[in-house]
Amino acid sequence: MANSPLVSYTKLSPNHSGKRTHTIDRITPHAxxxxxxxxxxxxxxxxxSRQASCNYAIGADGRIGLCxxxxxxxxxxxxxxxxxxxxxxxxxxxxxxPYTMKPEVYAAMVDLCVDICRRNGKKRLLxxxxxxxxxxxxxxxxxxxxxxxxxFARKSCPGNWLFGKLGDLAQEVNSRLGE
Length: 179
Fold this sequence. Notes:
This protein is of the alpha/beta class and 179 residues long.
């Protein structure tokens, strides 16, 4: 399994569980809580003591970084099960709720989600806003499901700004996947 060719910066974190035990069928975007560069986001995960990581990072200027190889499980969403299945993406955002992301970050996230879906043989990205319905949904082999950190921990991540746009994100990705 290859990593995204959209990556312009790599700083691998030691914080991961090695090879995944489940095929990739989820994408979990996060708000990093700060308008940070991709380098600064990746630096957040360099120390083992942090016990956190992500697969990809998107800096405030829209550049994409790699922190954990896509074939490996990151430690990102407070859920072992979700992280085994999900490509996790930490995105630069404002410091406070609703954790707004810059247009460059959102555009890069759309590009990255399209790329992740294509490389993993997925033809459709799904957003089911109801946590219980989403987590019992049987993802088909050609589908990818969006999940959020707030479903697994007492956090607002990815913030209300992105949470309110996840339907649009799925629609934009699906439109491009159909091209």
